[in-house]
Amino acid sequence: MAKFKLSSDGSTGGSRRVKIVVGVIVAVGLLVVGGSIAAASLNLRRTEANEWGCTFGRGPLDGKGLKGQFSPGSSGTWTNDDFVTGPADIRFYIIDEDPATADFGGRPIVVPARGSSNEGVGVVQVSVETQVRFVFNERFCEWYIDHGKRSEPLRFDGDPDTPSGWNSFLNASMNQKLIEAARPVVANQDYISLYVNAPIEDGLAYDVLAEKLSENLGRELARDLGGEYFCGPAYQFDGDIDGQLDEGCPPIEVTIKRVAPTDSTLIEKLETIVANEEQQRVIVSERDRQLEETAAKEQTELREQARRQAVEVAQAEADLAIAEAQEATLRQEQANAEVQATSDAAYCRELAAAGVDCALLAAAESGVYPRVIVGEGGDASILVDGGG
Predict the structure, then answer these.
(1) Span 170-197, pLDDT tens digits
(2) Between the CA of residue 129 and those of 108, 170, 177, 332, what are the distances in Å?
(3) C-alpha R_g of the chain
(4) How far from each other are the two terminal CA atoms of the chain, in whole angstroms?
(5) What is the pLDDT of residue 357?
(6) Model-level pTM?
(7) Of 208, 215, 219, 218, which Cα lies nearest the Cα of 186?
(8) Which string of b and e fits 18-46 if b means at least 16 CB within 10 Å?
(9) At what angle do helices 264-353 and 358-365 cross, to 10 degrees?
(10) What residue spans of the chain are helical by DSSP H?
(11) 152 pLDDT more than 60
């Protein structure tokens, strides 16, 4: 039977050694478990090319504030953090009278426009159907903290017909800011010009309104949200999430799809006006077409006449050149003959002085020998005719 020696405090030496061993084992076990927990809580995450990312602490030890921000297509690690992502690609917000076309339930904005004294109509309420295109800039995490978190679940790419935090944000914020942005722009234009998209100021009504709405909407949103979180589709990330927007923030893009009075009777009258104007345009267009055809025919005839005249002039000039050349040749030949005759006469005079008959010599040089013919009276004649 084994014996144990008591220590001064009444415990045995073997008991102390057992406690030490157990303590070491427990400590090692805790280190292993702690390391495993730490390793398990250390995560590697990569944002997609079309999303921003944010990490938040879970508390209570490390708090629940923002701990990290991730640009599109970047990666990082964190321990025991919540990871939130948001879209970095183009977002659409379509406001349309037709619910099937409207995006996220966006209803047309209604603002006042000028009436028409000619039609005896005062201020007219018009609905403005638009399409808005925009992107989140590098301040997405700030937007999420100030506005997005309270609207969870956001479901950015969910069914537009299904209620979500993103739907609620767009309809509560962007729709209202569109109304405020459109009110001063539309109020200066008459409802007829807006309905028919007539030329106003420096362009067509829809284009002019869209440009001004784009500028106003960005300003109104920034004022309402307390920061500039959205830019136009042309936004370029500068590579550093510091909230500075070094590459600028292009205006949110607004497209006007339709502007129409909310009063259906006014629309009916406008449709009549439009139909009459269209008929008038058809008449004018037909007249213009006929005038263009006549002008084209006249131009063709003038070109053909000019071509014929050019050919005739060229032919006349060629004939004149030929006649002048022939006349010059004839004059030269005549001059040459005169010179030759003068030379021959002088030569014959020299021969005659020497007692030589010029004609006989010339005939002999040409191989023509003279015939001597004796007449009845005994007179002789010399014929130079080449005969035998």
Answers:
(1) 988 999 999 999 999 999 999 999 999 9
(2) 5, 15, 14, 93
(3) 55
(4) 186
(5) 80
(6) 0.60
(7) 208
(8) eeeeeeeeeeeeeeeeeeeeeeeeeeebe
(9) 120
(10) 13-41, 140-143, 165-169, 175-186, 191-195, 205-225, 264-353, 358-365
(11) yes
Least confident residue range of 30-39, 85-94, 271-280: 30-39
pLDDT tens, position by position, 43-79: 667 789 999 999 998 877 777 899 999 999 988 766 6
* Closest to 102 in 3D by CA, of 94, 92, 111: 94
Q: DSSP letters of 258-298?
A: EEEES-HHHHHHHHHHHHHHHHHHHHHHHHHHHHHHHHHHH
Residue 217 pLDDT level (bands cut at 50, 70, 90): very high
- Torsion on CA atoms 7, 12, 18, 19, rounded to nearest 10: -50
Amino acid at 155: R
Greatest C-alpha distance within the chain: 207
Partnered with residue 42 across adjacent β-strands are: 79
Integer angstrom CA distances of residue 369 from 189, 364, 380? 118, 6, 16
Q: Which residue has the tokens 């970047």?
A: 74
Name all domains of the chain by residue range, CATH numbers in brackets: 90-262 (3.30.479.30), 357-388 (no CATH)
93 and 104 Cβ atoms separated by less than 8 Å: yes
CA distance 54 to 138: 11
Burial 312-335 (b: 16+ CB within 10 A, else e): eeeeeeeeeeeeeeeeeeeeeeee
Output the six-digit token pair for 194: 């807006």
Q: From residue 376, give the alpha-carbon distance in Å to each of 13, 380, 382, 383, 388.
A: 198, 9, 15, 16, 21
Q: What is the DSSP string of 297-312?
A: HHHHHHHHHHHHHHHH
Q: Is the dihedral of CA 13, 14, 16, 20 positive or negative?
A: positive
How far is the C-alpha of 152 from the C-alpha of 119, rounded, in Å?
Answer: 50
Q: Which two tokens stand for residue 339?
A: 């010179």
pLDDT at res. 22: 41
CA angle 328, 331, 334 (to 5 degrees): 150
